[in-house]
Each structure stands twice: as structure tokens, then as C-alpha cells.
Amino acid sequence: MAANLKSDIEAYVINKVKEKREALNLSQSELAAELNVSNGFIGQVESSKYPAKYNLNHLNKLAIIFKCSVKDFIPDTPLK
Predict the structure, then answer these.
(1) In angstroms, rounded to a whole number, what is the distance separating the alpha carbons of residues 32 and 29?
(2) How far is it, in rounded angstroms, from Cα 29 to Cα 78?
(3) Which secondary-structure segment (H or E) carries 78?
(4) How many angstroms separate the CA atoms of 24 and 13, rounded?
(5) For residue 15, how far is the Cα from the chain centroid?
(6) Hey, what CATH class is 8-71 in?
(7) What is the pTM of this model?
């Protein structure tokens, strides 16, 4: 079994994006198209089996797609 490939903060951000994606009933493929990334990228980001994750540019574009603030993906207090 491989070690966790994502840190706690990365997992938090990914879960927030996934919550917003699911709330809008967007598939991974639909979000990938909106974000202009490959079809499998969102699946890899949301899977613990891959090291893929969102970068700041992705988060900025996601905030535009979801009509929210970039801060909505970040915890209010640091994770320990």
C-alpha cells in the first residue's frame, strides 16, 4: 500500500471542490471541460491513488466556474 499521496491541506481543498461539483450535479468530465484539463485529471485529483492535485491557477478558475471565492476552498484555520 502506498503512502498517502496528498497532504491534509490538499485533501481538504480537493474535498471542497468535489462538494461544489456534486452540488451543481457536474460530472468529473464536465468539470474537466470547464477547467480545460484532460478528461481523467479530475478523477485523478479526487482519487487517493494518484498524486494529482489542483494548483492556484486551477483554484482561481474553479472559483470563477462555481461563482465563489478562492477562499471557499481553503480552511479558515491551519490544519495540523
Answers:
(1) 5
(2) 31
(3) none
(4) 17
(5) 6
(6) mainly alpha
(7) 0.92
> Which pLDDT tens digit goes with each residue over 19-62?
999 999 999 999 999 999 998 999 999 999 999 999 999 999 99
What is Dmax (Cα atoms) for the chain?
38
CB–CB of 32/41 below 8 Å? yes
* Helix (H) or strand (E) segment spanning residue 46: helix 41-46
46 contacts 18 by C-beta, under 8 angstroms: yes
Are 9 and 77 spatial neighbours (Cβ–Cβ below 8 Å)? no
> Which residues contact residue 12 at a Cβ distance below 8 angstroms, ignoring those fewer than 6 apart?
74, 75, 79
Work out the number of other CB atoms within 10 angstroms of the CB of residue 43: 15
Q: Does the pLDDT at position 1 exceed 60?
A: no
Residues 47, 71: Cα–Cα separation, whole Å:
23
